[in-house]
Amino acid sequence: EIADVDTLNAEYKKKQELFTQKSKLLEGKKASVKLYEDEANSLFDLESERANKIERQDEYIKDFNIIKKTIEYLKKADENLKIKYRAPLQNSLNKYLSLIDEQKNANIDIDFYLTLNEKEGQKSIEYYSKGSQDLFNICTRFALIDVLFNKEKPFVMLDDPFVNLDDKKLQNAISLINKLACDYQILYFVCHESRKA
Q1: Distance in angstroms (rounded) separating the CA atoms of residues 97 and 132
Q2: Whole-number Å distance between alpha carbons of 128 and 106
Q3: DSSP-derived secondary structure letter, 127
Q4: Per-residue pLDDT for 197 more than 70?
Q5: Which of 53, 62, 115, 116 is the most buried (most CB within 10 A)?
Q6: pTM of the model
């Protein structure tokens, strides 16, 4: 039996719509598969990047631990050096301070912070005038030279170190330079005749 043409056309149209619908569904599934494939490839890249970052993190942790240990060793070495040089530095400093004022006596703590003994007690170096501080600093520099150079003495260059001194302190300073010149070769530069040694 042959169905009429209209029935066949209607059935054909239905089949064509169903085919179009299934084709769209298939395209959607293909797009989903492509998306999943891209995500899978991206996941592979992310896994590779993660592995690289973990490896770099391990290197950073290793470097951090080395730096941390280095800091510990440097702090310990710093403490040992301070302990080793504090007493000789203080003795040498007091030797030079006695050249400018026999009453002056200094203390140096473990961090090389300088205080001076006075009748009223210990005074920080900041307590004194700028000129006095300059004198103390010169004495400290020569004390450091004594401590650091055992066998040979280097030449010392001073560029107008007493610019802040009053007349009385200036005479003490010039006297100090003349006494130090017996043991050291000193290049002493001044800008004014009054400070000439």
Answers
A1: 11
A2: 13
A3: G
A4: no
A5: 116
A6: 0.58
